[in-house]
Amino acid sequence: MIKSRLLPEAFICFLMAMLFAGTALAQTRTVTGKVTDNKSSPVVGATVQVKGGAGVSTNEAGEFRINLSSAADSLIFSHVEFETRAVAVRNRSTFNISLQPKDMGLDAVVVVGYGTQKRRDVTGAIGSVKGDAIRNMPVTDVAAALQGRVAGVEVVKSSGEPGAPTQITIRGVASLSQPQPLYIVDGVRQDGNNINMADVASFDVLKDASAASIYGAAAAGGVIIVTTKKGTGAKPTVNFNARYGVTTPRMMELLRRDEFIRFRKLINDPVYGPQSQTDTLPDTDWAGALFDNGTEENYNLSISGSSPNTNYFVSGIYNNQKGVFRKNSSGMYGFRLNTDIRVTDNIKIGEQLYVWQRNTTPPTGVSINPPFRTIPTMGIYGNSPENPWAKSPPGFAGPNLVAQIETAHRQFTQANFQGNAYAEIKLPFYLTFKTTLGYTYYNEELNYYQEAYNAGPVSVNATSLAKNNASTRSIFTNYVLSFDHAFGEHSINALAGYEQISGITNGAQIGATSVGGTSYAFLLTSDSRINLANGGYDDNALIKSMFGRVSYDFAKKYFATFSIRRDGNFQKFGPNNRYGVFPAGSVGWRISDEPFMKQLLPQANLLKLRGSYGVLGNSNIPSYVFLSTFDLVSAQNFAPGVVPVLNYTQQNIPNPNIKWESMYEANIGLDAEFMNGKLYASVDWYDKTTKDMLYNLPIPTSAGMPVSIFITNIGSVRNRGIEFSAGYRSNIGEFSYNVGVTGAFNKNKVLNLDNINNNAILAGDNNYGSPSFGIWTGQQLASTKAGAPFGQFWGYKVIGMYQSDDEWKNHPQQEGKQAKKGDLIFADIDDNKKIDEKDRTVIGSPYPDFVYGITLNLAYKGFDIQALFSGVAGVDIFNGVAPYAMSPFADGNTTNKVFGASMLDGDYLTSQPRIGEKTQTGFIQDPNHNYTWANSYFVENGSYLKLKQLQIGYNLPANILQKVKMKNARLYVMGYNLFCLTKYNGIDPELGGAVTTRGIDVPYRYPNSRIYSLGLDITF
């Protein structure tokens, strides 16, 4: 009876369920689409979710299909590497969505010493750059790639020579022995040059002492961690990138024949007097003979992929640069292999291998830019079949630069192998043990062959050959035990490790003269001499280190980190000072997670206050300065078959008390993120003081020592500054944009130079090839003294120009001289009523007050634009090229600026001082030392803003890619070093230099060039 009543009820329920199901099905529809990144590449594994409901994932083509009910109002598109995006459904049936990468988010993962952290949890000062931002830049060194992208990092590319190094400084120059940053590539110390930028996944720059102290004595110049790519995706991904470009130099134009002769006649040069036959003289464009457009080409191929237990990344690169200077080029090729294998759930192993070789033909000679040691009335080639080179004409004792270059054959080869393997084991009690073994081999070889030639006063009478070789081998071992555990609202991450680096160096130099043959293959003749100039072998390089770090956070709001490292350097310091200890600590407070801040500033996704203090060390000095060492200076075989006679000389004066240089740094920072990550900013204040600076103290020859090297600890220096970075990113429909700005103010001050009685350190020159030949010969151009910054310009201060011949009576004069109309007025600094050496004073500063960069990224549908600007402000340049370009130097050439000199061709004044005065029989050149004394007339404003890179690309649409079976294809055009806004009158205001001699522009600087490139980037 009961069952009979249940059957009709069950049937009714079934009919109602079917009715509602039918209604629901009638209101459900299917939509499809594709998710791509800002370069129109498919985003694999993106989640497409109905708001508040179910979701699906995109396939390898970035495509998806999902069912929507009529109640669905929006779809949420998300991926761990991209910004989440919500899109209204409306009546759309197809969705083509572009996601923006999380390149600058404060929630990204950053690499720190021996580990990783989320940026939200970092308590040190760290700047990060994603590899995609620099992959197509025409550079192969890390420093150049970072220019303008990280606050507090100043990068200077002052030479356009192919393969030339880039100068990088993090938070100001902090030592007389300023070290370069420490480069860590995939966890192992390596060189920052000759890296394939397409291999790089990310850069992380550890700027303050707390972030870098885990690397101890090697981190005084900062730390740059380079992480290379790993394989992703179940199917192999093949990427090919090709780029070809033309480089164009910016040159200073010299006088051609007619202008040159006109000028020489104005200064009564008897060689070009009225009786001389000038119409038949050559008209040689020496700048055109020495410089021409160059090329830059780069080809990169990579294959990557992964499985559940393995990932791999393999790449190869070929880069070749033909320099703008005659017979100058540099080519590099390299190969990389990265693999990771998960052996079991608890064991993982892997390796990273990188092999590269660079072959360079260096520029020959020093007369690079511009070639003032030429004259247009001298030809290049002669008429004699026995001697192809033109000789110097009467009145000119300079070289035939083309003959110098074409008869000199130089080849510089560098080869490097870098490899490391690791094993990682997960242990009980939240422990992990990781050991790494690394090996590096580097070899460089310079081969030089000089032909004999005859070009007049500057000739080579005998052939010669030289071969220099140096090699380094190092072994790196590392053992790290780490602990990572969270319980309740507490999280603890700790590690302890031991590290050892051992090395062997070997080198030799050998030369031969008067050899037979026409190249590196040679025969000894009866006149041949062989000389072993130098040789060296050292197998004692050893650094032993122990380190530890503990990080703690409570409720993800309060953070604290403490680290310590003990380094022992057995090669740089004696037994009494071999070890150094370098502690650091930092704290952080995520204020945005406090209830009061959520009410006060609800738009803030992140506000984090940071503070830190730490100690770093520096050992950037030659080895064994605590011992008395000797150099082999020659090994001469005076007769065939006779054992060579070896000659040695003392290399240095020992200093058994030499010790570590120590840097103490405090840092306070604030990180912020608003509007769901659209607006982001970070600001840091730092104060770092270096004590016991390492310095190569000059020893006067009067001391009777055969050497001039004595390295000791002197004085201290302080750098204080504020650095910031900020940006805004968003999209308007299919148009997306990202604008970023970085800036840094820094003030440098030498506090004392105690061990040299606070005497000023004078340095710097403006010679032309040798110390005894130049327009400011024997004058030191920079001063470093207590109470002032490093390397301030040193010279005579100009306070005006004489407007008449009688005005000299109103000003002190040089002894035995009388200034005239058009001469510079020098200040009498010591007020002794005469102008002499004691009146030299500070006349400028080469270190900028402000360094900044601007990045701009725009994308619309398949098009994208990337721009990078970099600049400096509040900096001076000592224009050492100007006196060569505005006055006659020796018997060489100059520029048309010389015609602007006061009183040259009439009785009138200009903005330029006079170059001399005519006499009845000749010309007295520069009697007042307007051009031949280093003075403030030649100190100029060196501030600039450069467009370093502009790249415009187009990504082929998805329908075309599907037809050709590609994942992505991008065509682009790029310009590098496109323009410069500056008041500087020289060729290029981007100038570096040594610590005490920075910012001095010299006439033999290799010019930076513009590069115009076409590129193709395709992925299968």
CATH superfamily of one domain: Carboxypeptidase-like, regulatory domain
Proportion of residues in extended strands: over 45%
Amino- and carboxy-terminal Cα gap: 71 Å
Number of strands: 55
* Number of contiguous helices: 9
Primary descriptors:
1020 residues, mainly beta, Immunoglobulin-like, 22-stranded antiparallel β-barrel, five-stranded mixed β-sheet, 9 helices, 55 strands, globular, disordered N terminus, Plug_dom
Q: What would you say this structure looks like, in words?
A:
There is one protein chain. With 1020 residues, this protein is mostly beta strands. It has a domain of 74 residues: Carboxypeptidase-like, regulatory domain (Immunoglobulin-like), CATH 2.60.40.1120. The chain is built from nine helices and 55 strands. The strands form 13 sheets. It has a 22-stranded antiparallel β-barrel. The termini are far apart. The N terminus is likely disordered.
List the helices and strands and how they pair.
Blueprint (H helix, E strand, L loop, with lengths): L1 H25 L1 E9 L10 E4 L4 E3 L5 E7 L4 E6 L2 E7 L5 E5 L10 E4 L2 E4 L7 E5 L11 H5 L6 E4 L10 E4 L11 E4 L2 E2 L10 E7 L2 H4 L10 E6 L8 E13 L7 H10 L19 H5 L3 E13 L3 E13 L6 E14 L4 E15 L39 H6 L1 E20 L3 E20 L13 E24 L2 E27 L6 E32 L3 E12 L9 E12 L4 H6 L3 E15 L11 E7 L8 E6 L10 E14 L4 E18 L14 E22 L2 E18 L8 E3 L3 E4 L2 E2 L7 E3 L7 E4 L2 E4 L11 E2 L9 E3 L7 E2 L5 E4 L5 E11 L2 E11 L2 E4 L2 H5 L29 E3 L4 E3 L13 E3 L2 E12 L2 H6 L4 E15 L17 E2 L7 E11 L1
Parallel strand pairs: 1-7, 13-16, 42-44, 48-54
Antiparallel strand pairs: 1-4, 2-3, 2-5, 5-6, 8-9, 10-15, 11-12, 13-14, 15-16, 17-18, 17-55, 18-19, 19-20, 20-21, 21-22, 22-23, 23-24, 24-25, 25-26, 26-27, 27-28, 28-29, 29-32, 30-31, 32-33, 33-34, 34-35, 35-46, 36-39, 37-38, 39-40, 40-45, 41-43, 46-47, 47-52, 48-51, 49-50, 52-53, 53-55
Organism: Pseudobacter ginsenosidimutans
Membrane topology: Multi-pass membrane protein
InterPro entries: Beta-barrel_TonB_sf, CarboxyPept-like_regulatory, Plug_dom, Plug_dom_sf, TonB-dep_OMP_SusC/RagA, TonB-dep_OMP_SusC/RagA_CS, TonB-dep_rcpt-like
